[in-house]
Amino acid sequence: MVMSVPNIPEGILRRAGLDEQDKALVCAIQCGLPLCPRPYAELGAGIGMTETEVMQRLQRLTDDDFIKRMGVVVRHHELGYRANAMVVWDIVDAKVSELGRCMGKFEFITLCYQRPRRLPDWRYNLFSMIHGRDRDEVLRHVDFVIERCALQDIAHEVLFSQRRFKQRGARY
Amino acid sequence: MTHRIKNCVIDNSIDTVKLNELERHLLNDFQRDFPLSATPYADMAEQLGVTEQEVIDTLQKLTEQGVISRVGAVFRPNRVGVSTLAAMAVPAEKLNEVAQLVSDYDEVNHNYEREHDFNLWFVATAKNETHLHEVLNAIETHSGIKVLYLPLLEDYHIDLGFELKWS
User: Fold this and answer.
1) Does residue A34 carry a pLDDT above 80?
2) Does chain A have fewer CB atoms within 10 Å around its N or its C terminus?
3) Which of B70, B69, B62 is nearest to B17 (CA)?
4) Are A66 and A19 in contact (CB under 8 A)?
5) A169/B69 Cβ within 8 A
6) How far is A125 from chain B (nearest CA, A)?
């Protein structure tokens, strides 16, 4: 059952520091910034906020690390990056942080997360997303990571994506 | 045959979007450090030596083509709402039906088929933990298939965007 999961570390649920207006701004921006000459003014008009206030709050949300980055969000598939694989690794807990950091720095890896194992169904605890133009390129990247991070003895599986049923930004 | 000409062809697939110089710069140069000024598109235009209207029109076109999902903010997971990756092992003959059931939830923002016994992978996002669990429980109940709940524990990736290679 979904509810019968181990406790989640506290840090994950930390959401301190967002006031009601921040939340309104987060809601307003999640479908994207308007494509018009004064986008922050237009965004603010919808939620009763001045252009300056929108910009200041976005700056603070970025400084406080709520916003990872601001900019153009590309869809790799449409640009010819047709292959992507979630590569999952079974790493002893004591080494997962070190190896995660080693993997997280490669430019072809776009996500690198530690997640819980779900034994006996699921043994893997490190998840990396690898993009390439085709499957061979993805597999070459996997080999490169194995060599550079010394993962020769680590069990892993490569889960290529097939159909994309849905992809959009998160809505909170 | 891939031609290396100014209007760069990214690969040989007939349906791959072909991009010109301006489009390539807009896609590659502004994945992060987007101008937080009153007139960001004018600032980008100045940097690229084109007009503000060209920048806006080109971003509009790339959005309509589906090359850009949006111009906006990427939030760090679990700092604004709560989200989780989840996986299901769906019998092949039920995959379309279960995928549709999952995609129909507004809380689900990504939903992919992957090559594995666990063949359906999705990300669900909600305002809080209770709501997130309700969604996953509902999916489990309505599909009759166990949902693996795989929340993020630690993020090791430094997101600098993704450098696109034009070959």
Assistant:
1) yes
2) N
3) B62
4) no
5) yes
6) 9
A104 token code pair: 């997280």
Instruction: Name the DSSP class of A159.
Output: E
pTM of the model: 0.71
**Nearest one of A57, A101, A4, A79 to B149, comparing CA atoms:** A4
Among candidates B104, B162, B119, B53, which has minimal Cα distance to A71? B162
Give the tens place of pLDDT for each residue, B13-59.
334 567 899 999 999 899 887 998 999 999 999 999 999 999 999 99
Rounded Cα distance, A159 and A109, in Å: 14
- Are B89 and B119 contacting, i.e. CB atoms less than 8 angstroms apart? yes
User: A-B interface: how many C-beta pairs under 8 angstroms?
Assistant: 282
Cis peptide before B151 (omega within 30 of 0): no
Closest CA to A88 of B98, B137, B148, B111: B148
CA gap A70, B144 in Å, rounded: 40
pLDDT higher at A89 or B165: A89
Q: Tell me the CA distances in angstroms from B149 to A25, A169, B13, B95, B126, one per residue in order.
A: 29, 20, 36, 19, 14
And the tokens for A56? 């200041």
Cβ-defined contact of B125 to A172 (cutoff 8 Å): yes
Confidence of residue A10 (pLDDT cuts 50, 70, 90): very low
Residue with tokens 């990736």: B157
* Residue B159 tokens, joined: 């997101």
CA dihedral B167, B71, B33, B154 (to 10 degrees): -90
Q: Under a CB-based contact definition with an 8 Å cutoff, are residues A91 and A99 in contact?
A: yes
| Predicted local distance difference test score (pLDDT) of residue A141 | 96
Cα A42–Cα A47–Cα A49 angle in degrees, nearest 5: 75
Q: Which of B125, B115, B73 lies closest to A139 in space, CA to CA? A: B115
Question: Do B30 and A75 make contact, defined as CB atoms within 8 angstroms?
Answer: no
Per DSSP bridges, beta strands A126-132 and B82-88 are unpaired
Both tokens of A155, joined, read: 């069990």
pLDDT of residue A78: 77
Query: Given pLDDT bands bounded at 50, 70 and 90, which one contains residue B161?
Result: low
